[in-house]
Specification:
binds protoporphyrin IX containing FE; globular; mainly alpha; Methane Monooxygenase Hydroxylase, Chain G, domain 1; 2 domains; single chain
Protein backbone atom coordinates (compact mmCIF):
# COMPACT_ATOMS: atom_id res chain seq x y z
CA UNK A 1 0.00 0.00 0.00
CA UNK A 2 1.49 3.36 -0.90
CA UNK A 3 1.34 6.37 1.37
CA UNK A 4 -1.63 7.89 -0.48
CA UNK A 5 -3.87 4.95 0.27
CA UNK A 6 -3.43 4.94 4.01
CA UNK A 7 -6.50 4.39 6.16
CA UNK A 8 -7.82 7.44 7.95
CA UNK A 9 -6.32 8.18 11.33
CA UNK A 10 -8.96 6.12 13.18
CA UNK A 11 -8.42 3.14 10.89
CA UNK A 12 -12.17 2.70 10.61
CA UNK A 13 -12.55 2.12 6.87
CA UNK A 14 -10.57 1.48 3.72
CA UNK A 15 -11.24 4.77 1.98
CA UNK A 16 -8.00 6.63 1.31
CA UNK A 17 -7.82 9.92 3.12
CA UNK A 18 -8.43 12.13 0.13
CA UNK A 19 -7.67 15.36 1.95
CA UNK A 20 -4.19 14.18 2.80
CA UNK A 21 -3.66 12.48 -0.54
CA UNK A 22 -4.86 15.36 -2.71
CA UNK A 23 -2.57 18.09 -1.39
CA UNK A 24 0.15 15.78 0.00
CA UNK A 25 -0.38 16.99 3.56
CA UNK A 26 1.67 14.08 4.87
CA UNK A 27 4.67 15.13 2.78
CA UNK A 28 4.10 18.74 3.79
CA UNK A 29 4.22 17.95 7.49
CA UNK A 30 7.36 15.90 7.06
CA UNK A 31 9.26 18.92 5.79
CA UNK A 32 10.14 20.62 9.09
CA UNK A 33 13.43 19.51 10.54
CA UNK A 34 14.45 21.73 13.44
CA UNK A 35 18.04 21.29 14.58
CA UNK A 36 17.33 22.13 18.22
CA UNK A 37 14.50 21.23 20.59
CA UNK A 38 13.34 24.87 20.75
CA UNK A 39 9.64 25.20 19.90
CA UNK A 40 10.56 28.66 18.57
CA UNK A 41 12.79 27.07 15.95
CA UNK A 42 9.85 24.96 14.79
CA UNK A 43 7.67 28.06 14.43
CA UNK A 44 10.52 29.89 12.65
CA UNK A 45 10.75 27.07 10.10
CA UNK A 46 6.97 26.88 9.72
CA UNK A 47 6.50 30.58 9.06
CA UNK A 48 9.49 30.63 6.71
CA UNK A 49 7.88 27.83 4.71
CA UNK A 50 4.50 29.56 4.73
CA UNK A 51 6.17 32.69 3.37
CA UNK A 52 7.97 30.73 0.65
CA UNK A 53 4.62 29.31 -0.48
CA UNK A 54 3.13 32.78 -0.44
CA UNK A 55 6.01 34.12 -2.55
CA UNK A 56 4.94 31.49 -5.04
CA UNK A 57 1.29 32.46 -4.75
CA UNK A 58 2.08 36.12 -5.38
CA UNK A 59 4.28 35.09 -8.28
CA UNK A 60 1.49 32.99 -9.76
CA UNK A 61 -0.87 35.97 -9.88
CA UNK A 62 1.75 38.46 -11.11
CA UNK A 63 2.62 36.01 -13.87
CA UNK A 64 -1.08 35.84 -14.81
CA UNK A 65 -1.24 39.64 -14.98
CA UNK A 66 1.77 39.64 -17.28
CA UNK A 67 0.21 37.04 -19.57
CA UNK A 68 -3.10 38.93 -19.78
CA UNK A 69 -1.28 42.14 -20.72
CA UNK A 70 0.59 40.38 -23.50
CA UNK A 71 -2.87 39.39 -24.80
CA UNK A 72 -4.02 43.04 -24.63
CA UNK A 73 -6.51 42.28 -21.87
CA UNK A 74 -5.86 45.06 -19.34
CA UNK A 75 -9.04 44.49 -17.31
CA UNK A 76 -8.12 40.82 -16.79
CA UNK A 77 -4.59 41.93 -15.89
CA UNK A 78 -6.00 44.31 -13.29
CA UNK A 79 -8.07 41.52 -11.76
CA UNK A 80 -4.92 39.37 -11.48
CA UNK A 81 -3.12 42.30 -9.86
CA UNK A 82 -5.94 42.66 -7.35
CA UNK A 83 -5.39 39.02 -6.39
CA UNK A 84 -1.64 39.65 -6.25
CA UNK A 85 -2.21 42.44 -3.74
CA UNK A 86 -4.52 40.34 -1.57
CA UNK A 87 -1.84 37.67 -1.32
CA UNK A 88 0.82 40.27 -0.61
CA UNK A 89 -1.24 41.46 2.35
CA UNK A 90 -1.35 37.91 3.73
CA UNK A 91 2.41 37.69 3.21
CA UNK A 92 3.08 40.88 5.14
CA UNK A 93 0.66 39.73 7.85
CA UNK A 94 2.91 36.73 8.46
CA UNK A 95 5.43 39.00 10.19
CA UNK A 96 2.91 39.19 13.05
CA UNK A 97 3.61 35.55 13.80
CA UNK A 98 7.36 35.98 13.60
CA UNK A 99 7.24 38.96 15.95
CA UNK A 100 5.81 36.69 18.63
CA UNK A 101 9.30 35.27 19.08
CA UNK A 102 11.43 36.98 21.77
CA UNK A 103 14.91 37.94 20.53
CA UNK A 104 16.69 35.79 23.14
CA UNK A 105 14.74 32.73 21.95
CA UNK A 106 15.79 33.47 18.34
CA UNK A 107 19.42 33.81 19.38
CA UNK A 108 19.09 30.44 21.12
CA UNK A 109 18.96 28.63 17.78
CA UNK A 110 20.31 31.26 15.34
CA UNK A 111 23.75 29.62 15.10
CA UNK A 112 22.19 26.46 13.68
CA UNK A 113 21.18 28.46 10.57
CA UNK A 114 24.82 28.73 9.60
CA UNK A 115 25.00 31.04 6.59
CA UNK A 116 21.41 30.41 5.52
CA UNK A 117 19.73 33.69 4.56
CA UNK A 118 16.62 34.91 2.78
CA UNK A 119 18.91 36.32 0.09
CA UNK A 120 19.25 32.70 -1.06
CA UNK A 121 15.50 32.27 -1.68
CA UNK A 122 15.10 31.56 -5.39
CA UNK A 123 11.33 31.97 -5.17
CA UNK A 124 11.68 35.47 -3.73
CA UNK A 125 14.14 36.34 -6.48
CA UNK A 126 11.85 34.86 -9.12
CA UNK A 127 9.09 37.13 -7.84
CA UNK A 128 11.35 40.19 -7.93
CA UNK A 129 12.55 39.33 -11.44
CA UNK A 130 8.98 38.79 -12.64
CA UNK A 131 7.78 42.12 -11.29
CA UNK A 132 10.78 43.92 -12.79
CA UNK A 133 13.64 44.16 -10.28
CA UNK A 134 16.32 42.27 -12.19
CA UNK A 135 19.23 42.84 -9.84
CA UNK A 136 21.19 40.00 -11.41
CA UNK A 137 24.34 40.52 -9.33
CA UNK A 138 22.59 38.89 -6.37
CA UNK A 139 22.09 35.68 -8.36
CA UNK A 140 25.83 35.22 -8.49
CA UNK A 141 26.55 36.41 -4.96
CA UNK A 142 23.78 34.35 -3.30
CA UNK A 143 24.59 31.18 -5.23
CA UNK A 144 21.31 31.08 -7.11
CA UNK A 145 22.87 29.98 -10.39
CA UNK A 146 21.76 26.43 -9.60
CA UNK A 147 18.11 27.39 -10.23
CA UNK A 148 17.41 27.34 -13.99
CA UNK A 149 13.99 28.91 -13.43
CA UNK A 150 15.77 32.20 -12.70
CA UNK A 151 17.83 32.10 -15.86
CA UNK A 152 14.69 31.28 -17.86
CA UNK A 153 12.87 34.21 -16.26
CA UNK A 154 15.61 36.62 -17.31
CA UNK A 155 14.95 35.65 -20.91
CA UNK A 156 11.35 36.90 -20.64
CA UNK A 157 9.99 40.44 -20.43
CA UNK A 158 9.10 41.33 -16.84
CA UNK A 159 5.62 42.46 -15.82
CA UNK A 160 6.78 46.08 -16.11
CA UNK A 161 8.28 45.40 -19.54
CA UNK A 162 4.89 44.04 -20.64
CA UNK A 163 3.13 47.07 -19.16
CA UNK A 164 5.34 49.44 -21.17
CA UNK A 165 4.88 47.40 -24.34
CA UNK A 166 1.13 47.50 -23.79
CA UNK A 167 1.21 51.31 -23.41
CA UNK A 168 3.21 51.56 -26.64
CA UNK A 169 0.64 49.40 -28.47
CA UNK A 170 -2.05 51.77 -27.18
CA UNK A 171 -0.26 54.60 -28.96
CA UNK A 172 1.53 56.18 -26.00
CA UNK A 173 5.05 57.44 -26.80
CA UNK A 174 7.14 54.84 -24.97
CA UNK A 175 10.61 55.03 -26.59
CA UNK A 176 11.53 52.16 -28.90
CA UNK A 177 14.71 51.60 -26.87
CA UNK A 178 12.50 50.79 -23.85
CA UNK A 179 10.05 48.60 -25.78
CA UNK A 180 12.84 46.58 -27.38
CA UNK A 181 15.20 46.49 -24.40
CA UNK A 182 17.07 43.34 -23.38
CA UNK A 183 14.92 41.90 -20.55
CA UNK A 184 17.92 40.27 -18.88
CA UNK A 185 19.48 43.64 -18.07
CA UNK A 186 18.35 45.63 -14.99
CA UNK A 187 15.78 48.29 -15.92
CA UNK A 188 16.90 51.93 -15.99
CA UNK A 189 14.18 54.53 -15.36
CA UNK A 190 13.48 56.78 -18.32
CA UNK A 191 12.27 60.42 -18.45
CA UNK A 192 10.06 59.65 -21.44
CA UNK A 193 8.29 56.87 -19.52
CA UNK A 194 7.74 59.25 -16.63
CA UNK A 195 6.09 61.67 -19.09
CA UNK A 196 3.89 58.88 -20.45
CA UNK A 197 2.57 58.13 -16.96
CA UNK A 198 2.13 61.85 -16.36
CA UNK A 199 -0.04 62.14 -19.47
CA UNK A 200 -2.12 59.17 -18.24
CA UNK A 201 -2.69 60.84 -14.85
CA UNK A 202 -3.51 64.18 -16.48
CA UNK A 203 -6.32 62.52 -18.44
CA UNK A 204 -7.57 59.40 -16.62
CA UNK A 205 -10.76 59.18 -18.66
CA UNK A 206 -8.85 59.39 -21.91
CA UNK A 207 -6.52 56.60 -20.77
CA UNK A 208 -8.86 54.53 -18.59
CA UNK A 209 -7.14 51.15 -19.03
CA UNK A 210 -3.65 52.58 -18.49
CA UNK A 211 -4.80 54.59 -15.46
CA UNK A 212 -6.47 51.59 -13.79
CA UNK A 213 -3.39 49.52 -14.50
CA UNK A 214 -1.14 52.20 -13.00
CA UNK A 215 -3.18 52.32 -9.80
CA UNK A 216 -3.05 48.53 -9.41
CA UNK A 217 0.68 48.44 -10.14
CA UNK A 218 1.33 51.12 -7.57
CA UNK A 219 -0.57 49.07 -5.01
CA UNK A 220 1.58 46.01 -5.81
CA UNK A 221 4.73 48.13 -5.43
CA UNK A 222 3.40 49.66 -2.20
CA UNK A 223 2.63 46.24 -0.70
CA UNK A 224 6.06 44.94 -1.70
CA UNK A 225 7.73 47.88 0.02
CA UNK A 226 5.57 47.30 3.10
CA UNK A 227 6.82 43.70 3.23
CA UNK A 228 10.41 44.92 3.03
CA UNK A 229 9.86 47.63 5.64
CA UNK A 230 8.26 45.19 8.08
CA UNK A 231 11.07 42.69 7.51
CA UNK A 232 13.54 45.45 8.40
CA UNK A 233 11.65 46.13 11.64
CA UNK A 234 11.65 42.42 12.50
CA UNK A 235 15.39 42.29 11.81
CA UNK A 236 16.03 45.27 14.12
CA UNK A 237 13.87 43.61 16.75
CA UNK A 238 15.75 40.31 16.54
CA UNK A 239 19.28 41.44 15.76
CA UNK A 240 19.63 45.16 16.50
CA UNK A 241 22.73 46.13 14.54
CA UNK A 242 24.26 42.63 14.25
CA UNK A 243 25.45 41.32 10.90
CA UNK A 244 23.18 39.05 8.85
CA UNK A 245 23.72 35.31 8.55
CA UNK A 246 24.11 35.85 4.79
CA UNK A 247 27.13 38.07 5.44
CA UNK A 248 25.58 41.53 4.97
CA UNK A 249 25.57 44.44 7.43
CA UNK A 250 22.10 43.29 8.45
CA UNK A 251 19.64 46.13 9.08
CA UNK A 252 21.99 48.69 7.48
CA UNK A 253 22.00 46.75 4.20
CA UNK A 254 18.26 46.16 4.33
CA UNK A 255 17.72 49.91 4.75
CA UNK A 256 19.31 50.49 1.33
CA UNK A 257 17.21 47.66 -0.17
CA UNK A 258 14.16 49.44 1.24
CA UNK A 259 14.84 52.40 -1.02
CA UNK A 260 14.07 50.37 -4.13
CA UNK A 261 10.68 50.93 -5.74
CA UNK A 262 9.01 48.71 -8.31
CA UNK A 263 7.71 50.49 -11.44
CA UNK A 264 9.93 53.49 -10.61
CA UNK A 265 8.47 56.14 -12.91
CA UNK A 266 5.06 55.62 -11.33
CA UNK A 267 6.60 56.94 -8.11
CA UNK A 268 8.82 59.70 -9.49
CA UNK A 269 6.17 61.18 -11.76
CA UNK A 270 4.22 62.19 -8.63
CA UNK A 271 6.68 65.04 -8.09
CA UNK A 272 5.62 66.47 -11.45
CA UNK A 273 1.87 65.91 -11.11
C1 LIG B 1 14.14 36.30 12.80
C2 LIG B 1 13.72 36.54 11.59
C3 LIG B 1 14.60 37.11 10.50
C4 LIG B 1 15.76 37.78 10.57
C5 LIG B 1 16.53 38.20 11.82
C6 LIG B 1 16.18 38.06 9.21
C7 LIG B 1 17.34 38.72 8.87
C8 LIG B 1 17.73 39.04 7.60
C9 LIG B 1 18.93 39.76 7.26
C10 LIG B 1 19.94 40.31 8.25
C11 LIG B 1 18.97 39.86 5.91
C12 LIG B 1 20.07 40.54 5.08
C13 LIG B 1 20.91 39.51 4.38
C14 LIG B 1 21.82 38.72 5.32
O1 LIG B 1 22.91 39.19 5.65
O2 LIG B 1 21.40 37.63 5.74
C15 LIG B 1 17.79 39.21 5.38
C16 LIG B 1 17.45 39.13 4.05
C17 LIG B 1 16.32 38.54 3.59
N1 LIG B 1 15.37 37.87 4.34
FE1 LIG B 1 15.29 37.76 6.33
N2 LIG B 1 15.26 37.56 8.35
C18 LIG B 1 14.28 36.95 9.09
C19 LIG B 1 13.19 36.28 8.61
C20 LIG B 1 12.91 36.12 7.29
C21 LIG B 1 11.81 35.34 6.77
C22 LIG B 1 10.80 34.54 7.58
C23 LIG B 1 11.87 35.44 5.42
C24 LIG B 1 10.96 34.81 4.43
C25 LIG B 1 10.90 33.54 4.26
C26 LIG B 1 12.97 36.30 5.09
C27 LIG B 1 13.34 36.62 3.82
C28 LIG B 1 14.43 37.38 3.49
C29 LIG B 1 14.75 37.77 2.14
C30 LIG B 1 13.95 37.42 0.89
C31 LIG B 1 15.91 38.50 2.20
C32 LIG B 1 16.64 39.13 1.01
C33 LIG B 1 16.09 40.52 0.77
C34 LIG B 1 16.62 41.15 -0.51
O3 LIG B 1 17.55 40.63 -1.11
O4 LIG B 1 16.06 42.16 -0.92
N3 LIG B 1 13.57 36.69 6.24
N4 LIG B 1 17.06 38.71 6.44
Amino acid sequence: MNQHNRHDQHGQHDQPNQYVAYARMDALHALQEPRTSSPFEMSFILISQVKELLFRMVHLEADQARARLAEDRPEAACRALTRTVRNQRVLTGCWESMNAMPADEFLGFRDTLGQASGTQSFMYRLLEFTLGNRATAVVRSADLTAFPVLRAELGRPSLYDEVLRFLARRGLPVPESVVARDPAVPYTPHDAVEKVWLSVYHDPDGHRAAYDLAEQLLEVAYQFSRWRATHLLVVERMLGGKRGSGGSDGAAWLRTVNEHRFFPELWTMRSLL
